[in-house]
Amino acid sequence: MKAEASVQVNKKNVGNQILGKFATFTKSYAIILAIFILGIVFSFASPYFLTYNNLRNILQQTTALAIVVIGQAMIVTTGNFDMSLGQNVCLTSCICAWLIKFGGFNPWIAILAALLVGTSVGAFNGLLVAYGDIPAFIVTLGSQMIARGFAKIITKASPIPGMPEEIQFIGRGFIGGSKYGIPISVVIMLVLFLIFTVIMQRTKFGRNLYAIGGSSEAAYFAGINVKKHKALTFIIAGALCSVGSIILLTRLDSAALTNGNLYEFDSMISCIIGGISLTGGRGKLIQGLFGTIFLTLFFNGMTMLNVDPFVQDVLKGCVLIGAVVIDVVRNKKR
Amino acid sequence: MENNILVLNEVSKSFPGVKALDKVSFAVKEGTVHALVGENGAGKSTLIKILAGIYQAEEGTVAFDGEKVCFRTPYESQCKGLSVVHQELKLSETLSVTENIFMGNLMYKGKFVDWKGMRTKARELLDQYSMTMDVNEPVSNLSIAQKQMIEICKALNHKCRLLIMDEPSATLTEREQKIMFETVRKLRSNGVTIIYISHRLEEIFDLADNVTVLRDGKHIATMPVSDIDKHSLISMMVGREMVNEYPKEKFEVGETVLEVKNLCRKGVLNDISFSVHKGELIGIAGLVGSGRTELARAILGIDKIDSGEVLLYGKPVKVKNFRTAINHGCGLVPENRKSQGLVQIGSVNDNICMVNMDMFIHSGLINNKMQKETSREYVEKLNISTPSVETEVQYLSGGNQQKVVIAKWLLKGSNIIFLDEPTRGIDVGSKSEIYLLINDLIRHGKVVIMISSELPEILGMSDRILVMHEGTLKGELTREEATQEKILELCV
Q1: Which fold has domain B256-491?
Q2: Cβ B400–A211 below 8 Å, yes or no?
Q3: CATH code for residues B4-238
Q4: pLDDT for B439-472, tens place per residue?
Q5: From the candidates A7, A12, A18, which should be mutated to test the interface with B, based on the most B CB atoms within 10 A?
């Protein structure tokens, strides 16, 4: 029975397997290829493009969003998504800035407060989605609006500029000098990606998230506390938003209502283009990073080519739809 | 002279890496019930999908009523008179009976939809098959058996001449099955040809006139049912000699492992009490809806109970959720293997180790190597047919998938294992392996509680049989005294 059944399964499934592995390989690395192609295309448009400084700049621009992407990717892996990430970043930037500028607080205490606020927004989302059984779309849409409302109240709709020198290094500092060094924000981003990749691939918590994404029912029937895990993804995402927002705040040197704008969509697009499926249960965090780099590169290039910003908005919508279509087609092939 | 309503000639179909159908040729006579049997993966689904118009054959021809056909969509096949009642019913739950029967095929009076005409026609169709449901009833209120009838009426409404029924009895109770068989016979006497796919060979011998056996995508044989017996049929399906269908082994009965006292859940379970001893296989029989799964869920803490006690090894245990039950040594192989038993996109490795990850964690991180080695051990031990432990379980056959689920609880070391419909939808060969596995579990001192709707299985494997009826434990029978009739009597 064993030999025959093995042959039977092997005949049918080795083919599927090989194709499957090849497909996964190309899917995981397609985004890197896309980044290279984009880079080459843009380098024709401007000789300045492929310089170390410019590329380093672009990488710096990705940091805040990329850190938010870690959170979104974890949430997407469990089959949900978070619409409030952008305004979470906005709110935490504004609170931090306000506490420093108008509250007179020590900047490090303000940062701590911002982390707390970001995490609380995440907790709000997590508790309602996981334990209240309310669809993530609705809860995070609501918290998005609440967060923005608070941001407006705090800033009275005008930007809060000028962050103190002692924290400026977070968003603007370099390791190894400003000419050729690596931006501190990039280091923070890479360290966070490393930590969370290890969590996702090598800890029980991370593997449980993949199980839940594959089938939350099956995960439950394997004894996994599904609600707790789902809630935690939102809480972690909230915390990561606040980290990203501090980097953003210190890089832009100002907290405005535009901080973090549309990050929820950008993070979604980044995940999807990178290869993380919306249906959940699949995908590695690093794919999200590549997706973010691609996205930032793309729109950076657009600006360099003097494409009208409103046209860029249209393009962004198209990219989102394109990314989702690719995701659906990819899933159909399975 | 009988007419061949369907003739397949050298039909082939491949998918990447797999030859699903390999030059299949046979004919179906008009006005007969023609059974199609074969193990999972034999090619039955693919064949049906080609006939229905969901796939197209790469090679070979299909002739329907003497005419060569190649359906590109299900609509084309339905219009020609070929309909399929799928295993997963394709009805719109929120729409009414009438609307479902006329889906895609509405009646018009001029430019407007003729509701009155459709309701009348729907009523006629239902009456023809002694169905009493209201034509305006939303389909979601109907039982599975009734929904199946609606599917059949939908097909008949398309002037169906060939009806393909895919595992129609899988989700029906005994009583409903009998009614369905009557319907099939009536359809036949009305001139409808039926291709009947089922794993339940008793049905084939009861209902069918002819039978076609597929194996590994190839046509093995087509013959009148009267020319063959069950034993030979199984041999053809499986390609080898099958000795004992239910390999029961008796083991020494020991201490009381699980005791349930006066378990109550309002409206669902009424005062249930029983006990299970080491070395026993307890079978739980009953009609669909009698509360068997609910009983397991209540004992395992998945559902809350209103009153009653659960004692494990003599000590009362407060099972407040499923994790508590797991920690006390319980395991569950759920009814729905695909969505509850396994994470389909997860690997064999992921699934086997899912309950017991702690075993592989050193200083916070999972030891991947150790995990894979352990999975390989269990794949070997349970004879799971898979190219590697990294293969996604969705690519495994039903029987092998079920083995992965069982492996999961073996690895955890669970001592009280609940099996809910463990061999549903599994081919004959794998079924036998699962039974041997179950014997092994009991041999190693574990207790097995098996819920099943297949009476032969319950009779073949159980040491004691508990019969449920509408939430009450109606009766208990020992292996020696139990017969199909006795069980059925208690079921109703």
Answers
A1: Rossmann fold (3.40.50)
A2: no
A3: 3.40.50.300
A4: 999 999 899 999 998 788 898 999 999 999 888 9
A5: A12
